[in-house]
Design a protein that fits this description.
This protein has 266 residues and is of the alpha+beta class. The protein has helices spanning 14-20, 41-54, 58-66, 119-124, 181-184, 194-205, 224-227, 229-265, and strands spanning 71-82, 88-101, 104-111, 115-116, 132-136, 160-164, 170-174. Strand 1 (71-82) and strand 2 (88-101) form a beta hairpin. The N and C termini lie far apart (94 Å). 23% of the residues are buried. The strands form two sheets. Strands 1, 2, 3, 4 and 5 form a five-stranded antiparallel β-sheet that branches. Strands 6-7 form a two-stranded antiparallel ribbon. The protein is built from eight helices and seven strands; from the N terminus they run H-H-H-E-E-E-E-H-E-E-E-H-H-H-H.
C-alpha cells in the first residue's frame, strides 16, 4: 500500500468514534428550581464533596484507550474555569494518533469535548496550554512530560531530514508526504533548529518540561498567545468580573458601615 497521509483523517470505526466523541461534561449539581433555600447547608457541602471526589482524570482514560496505537499525542487544546460559588476546572484536548494500515501509518486528529478535571490536574498543567501532555513514539513507552506538539517526530529519518540554512545552521524539514504535520501540530511559525531540538531531547529525557527557545510554547509562550487567543480573552474577562465583584462587595460593606456609624451618632 502506498503512503498517502492526510492532514486530518477520521477513521470510520465505532471504537475510534466512541473514544473521542465522548459526552460533554455534566454540569455542576444544582438545586431544583425554587427550592435552593430549603436545601440544608450540610447537604450542599456533601454534594460538593462527592462531586469533587468523583471527578476522574481524562488523561488516564485516553491513555488506556490509545494503548492500542503505536504513536499518539494528547495535546492540551484549551482550558477554563467555570462557576462563581464553586469552581469547575475544564480541559479540552486535541488527540493525534497513528493507526497502522498495511505498511503505512495513517494519522488521525480530533478535538474532544470539554472535560472536567480534578483541581490538582488543572493546576499541574496551568503552564502547559498548547503542549503535548502525553506522547508516545513507535516502539516506545508513553512520555508524560509536557513538550511542544510534534517534536517527537523531529530527528526521525522516517519523517524528514536536517537541512543546512543560508547562515550555516541546520533546521528540520518534513518530507513532502508528512508536510501536513506542520499545520497539525502548529509548527508553521518558524523552523525547528538543531540546537532547539537538542535542548528538547535533553530536557524531556531528564523528565523536565520543555517550552522551546525563548519560551515559545506553553501558556506563557509567544506562539501560544497567537494560536490560543480565546483562552486569553476568557481569562481577561474572568479577571475583570472578579474585580467587579470585589468592588461591589467593598461598596456594600462601606454603605453598611456608614449606616451603622450614623445610627451610633444619634
Amino acid at each position: 500500500m502506498t503512503t498517502n497521509l492526510l492532514n486530518i483523517m477520521t477513521v470510520d470505526k465505532p471504537r475510534t468514534q466512541l473514544l473521542f466523541n465522548s459526552a460533554a461534561p455534566s454540569s455542576d449539581p444544582s438545586f431544583p428550581s425554587g427550592s435552593s433555600r430549603a436545601v440544608p447547608f450540610m447537604t450542599f457541602l456533601l454534594v460538593m464533596l462527592l462531586t469533587a471526589c468523583s471527578t476522574t482524570n481524562p488523561l488516564e482514560e485516553y491513555q488506556k484507550e490509545l494503548a492500542q496505537y503505536p504513536e499518539y499525542q494528547v495535546i492540551l487544546q484549551d482550558m477554563k474555569e467555570e462557576g462563581n460559588f464553586t469552581t469547575d476546572y475544564m480541559h479540552q484536548y486535541k488527540i493525534v494518533w497513528a493507526e497502522p494500515v498495511g505498511d503505512s501509518l495513517v494519522f488521525n486528529s480530533e478535538i474532544t469535548n470539554w472535560r472536567q478535571v480534578p483541581k490538582e490536574v488543572y493546576q499541574q498543567h496551568q503552564q502547559n496550554l498548547g503542549m503535548a501532555l502525553v506522547a508516545r513514539s513507535e516502539s516506545a513507552e508513553p512520555v508524560g512530560t509536557a513538550q511542544p506538539p510534534g517534536y517527537q517526530y523531529v530527528g526521525n529519518s522516517r519523517y524528514g531530514h536536517w537541512q543546512t540554512g543560508v547562515g550555516g545552521g541546520s533546521f528540520w524539514a518534513f518530507y513532502g508526504q508528512y508536510a501536513f504535520m506542520n499545520s497539525m501540530f502548529n509548527m508553521m511559525s518558524g523552523p525547528i533548529r538543531r540546537n532547539d531540538y537538542d535542548n528538547y531531547r535533553s530536557s524531556v529525557g531528564g523528565g523536565r518540561s520543555y517550552y522551546g527557545l525563548n519560551n515559545r510554547y506553553g501558556t506563557n509562550g509567544s506562539q501560544t498567545k497567537q494560536t490560543n487567543k480565546s483562552f486569553f480573552e476568557r481569562r481577561t474577562a474572568r479577571a475583570s468580573r472578579a474585580k467587579a465583584r470585589q468592588r461591589t462587595g467593598r461598596s456594600t460593606m462601606n454603605r453598611f458601615r456608614g449606616r451603622s456609624s450614623g445610627r451610633g451618632g444619634k
